[in-house]
Every structure is written in structure tokens, then in C-alpha cells.
């Protein structure tokens, strides 16, 4: 079989991409999560919390809701339907920490849950920290030479 024939055959076998539908679902889901978070923020400020306290409480609500949904197996179903919109930073990070912890709990508290909890989120933390330090140093150098 030639490369061209294989390429034609594989293009016929692959279903057409539903990128527009997926993008709209992700956009609407991410927007809905952010709108809910904003409503919680306003609710907490109405309850006389400061903006800093309200921000903290909104993060706790989002992390708690994601943890519960992940624990009950509903977050993955939501993610399959909604796509990337469910993985806005705080909910995606909470899911990335809780999922391996649940998956490996049968291996014990130390070698299962604790050891595997950051298998997905660990690299994000490492590269996030390293890139923020690098950007801070670049900013410092830029300000030192051009300010």
C-alpha cells in the first residue's frame, strides 16, 4: 500500500471533527462556571465579607464542588460533555489532584493516595513556579536596564 492510498483510507475512516460544537460547549461551560463564581462572589460581599475574603470563599466553593463531583464520578462525565470549559484553572487543578488520589486509594494512604495525588498536578506546580520565577527575573532585568 502506498503512502497516498493509506492517507486516503485513513481520512475516510476518521470521523469529521466537531470543533465548532466542542468550542461552543467549552465556551458556554467555562462562561457558566465563571458566572456562577461571580454570583458567589457578589453573594459573599453582600454578606459583609471583604473582597479578599469573598475571593477566598469562592475558590473554596469551586474546589469543594469539584472535589465532590470528582468523588462521585460526575466531573468526568461533565468534562466529556462540556470539554475544556470545565477545566478552567481552579476546577481543573482540583480535579487533577483528586482523581489520582481516588484512583490509587486501594494502594494505601502513603503509597497510594499521598504518593499519586500530585502525579498530574505536580508538573504543573513545578513548571508554573519555574516560569513565574523566570518571568520575575526577566522583569527585574528589564526594569533595571530600561527604567
Please sum up the structure shown.
The chain contains 7 helices and no strands. It is mainly α and 147 residues long. The chain starts with a helix and ends with a helix.
What does this protein look like?
Helix content is 80%, strand content 0%. It is an all-alpha fold and 147 residues long. The protein has a domain at 18-88. Helix 2 (19-46) crosses helix 3 (51-71), helix 3 runs parallel beside helix 5 (89-103) and helix 5 (89-103) packs antiparallel against helix 6 (109-116). The N and C termini lie far apart (64 Å). The mean pLDDT is 88.
Describe the global form: extended
The largest β sheet comes out as: none
Helix content: over 70%
List the quaternary state of the chains. Answer: single chain
Low-confidence stretches: none
Number of helices: 7
Number of strands: 0
Distance between the termini: 64 Å
β-strand percent reads under 5%
On the 0 to 100 scale, the average pLDDT is 88
Q: Give Rg in angstroms.
A: 21 Å
Order of helices and strands: HHHHHHH
Structural class, please? Answer: mainly alpha
Descriptive labels:
mainly alpha
Q: Topology, please?
A:
Elements: H1 3-13, H2 19-46, H3 51-71, H4 74-82, H5 89-103, H6 109-116, H7 121-146
Helix pairs in contact: 2-3, 3-5, 5-6
